[in-house]
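Minutes, structural biology subgroup

Action item carried over from last meeting: produce the structure token record for N-acetyltransferase (Clostridium taeniosporum). EB confirmed the sequence was re-checked against the source entry. Recorded below for completeness.
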Amino acid sequence: MKLIFKRCDEEDFEDFFILRSDDENIYWTGYDKKPNKNNLKNWYLKQLKRDDRLLFIVRSDETDEPVGYLYLDIVGDNHNIIETGHGVNSKYKGKGLGTEIIKFAIDYSKNELTFIDEVDGWILEDNIGSIKNVLKNGYDETDERKKIYVENLNTYKFLKKYVYKIIRIS
Ligand SMILES: CC(C)(COP(=O)(O)OP(=O)(O)OC[C@H]1O[C@@H](n2cnc3c(N)ncnc32)[C@H](O)[C@@H]1OP(=O)(O)O)[C@@H](O)C(=O)NCCC(=O)NCCS
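Output recorded by EB:
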């Protein structure tokens, strides 16, 4: 399956909505029900205008359905760090797509965002699939953790930071 990455525009909203309505996506992003379409659309349109967030939709050559999405957030005092958010259509999970999406995040940051030195992932400690995605791409696990409230479970969990340092040879 060949993946096609496209910067999101207004026309990609329906596909983004499908991905964010996926049960596994709802669970791992901390919600307990499908997003309200109008609210999500308002939020989505705002994201498209942001300079510090790049949103991608992922399609494939084998299906008309969207297969995933990716956010690249530019963070840090020096605006030199990317934090990623990604998701895969659960119909296609376990086929290496999540790993490939993270590889794209690294390659894009290296090649297109030359001011970026590091690609980070903050991942829930029990999100094994996502942890595998970053470790397979050569990220290092760190000791940094962040406590967050998870609405759907009405409990606190920890996110752990994983880091990929970009080395550029000039
Ligand atoms: C996390 C996610 C992106 C993974 O996508 P994917 O396409 O299934 O990822 P891959 O197939 O590349 O890799 C997943 C790996 O984790 C493994 N895995 C997934 N869940 C697992 C579990 N509960 N126990 C053990 N292994 C698990 C898979 O078998 C696969 O192993 P492999 O690399 O050895 O083959 C996808 O499940 C998803 O969209 N989840 C909801 C949103 C989310 O959690 N996003 C990440 C936020 S940090």
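Discussion: The pocket of coenzyme A is lined by residues 24-25, 28, 86-88, 93-99, 123, 127-130, 132-133, 136 (CB under 6 Å).
Next step: EB to file the record with the rest of the batch.
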